[in-house]
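can u do me a favor
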């Protein structure tokens, strides 16, 4: 809900995703009325009483009865992912044989090399894995699924640091 320019972090994030994806789902805690109201123009709001139990429960709620071919899990506190990156990931999903894709930040042009290059969000899941994602529980989210499927993940190289930059505290917005 923190301010980011003329809107909030949530509105900025949802606005970028809404430019690329036909439909969005946002999972919120049942008591997050203000966030649900703010986000309703962008997404179908799914309220869950289980969110306090961890990211896995929120994922499960979001993946319930999902009719899509692909679903991308993005985080509301990551407003800096570029629209071009989201478009690239969506297009890549239509072409890949892998059931999971995720962006991986490529080394910068100034020669700085991060080994291994960090991967980020959003992570795309093919419908063949929706039931497995919906079984996620606890704080691990989809981490256990990603570990068990590591040979079935395609990392898509991107030059967008927004895929790894999140806002944990309003102070993270200082100087932006």
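np, heres the sequence
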């Amino acid at each position: 809900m923190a301010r980011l320019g003329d809107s909030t972090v949530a509105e900025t994030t949802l606005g970028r995703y809404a430019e690329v994806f036909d439909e969005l789902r946002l999972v919120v805690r049942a008591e997050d009325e203000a966030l649900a109201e703010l986000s309703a123009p962008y997404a179908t709001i799914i309220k869950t009483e289980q969110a306090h139990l961890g990211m896995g429960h929120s994922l499960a709620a979001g993946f319930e009865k999902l009719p899509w071919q692909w679903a991308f899990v993005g985080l509301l506190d990551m407003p800096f992912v570029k629209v071009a990156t989201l478009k690239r990931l969506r297009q890549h999903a239509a072409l890949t044989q892998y059931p999971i894709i995720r962006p991986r930040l490529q080394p910068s042009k100034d020669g700085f090399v991060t080994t291994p290059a960090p991967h980020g969000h959003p992570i795309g899941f093919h419908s063949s894995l929706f039931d497995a994602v919906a079984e996620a529980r606890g704080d691990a989210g989809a981490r256990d699924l990603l570990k068990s499927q590591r040979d079935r993940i395609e990392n898509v190289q991107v030059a967008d640091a927004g895929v790894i930059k999140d806002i944990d505290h309003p102070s993270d917005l200082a100087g932006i």
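The chain has a mean pLDDT of 92. hope that helps!!
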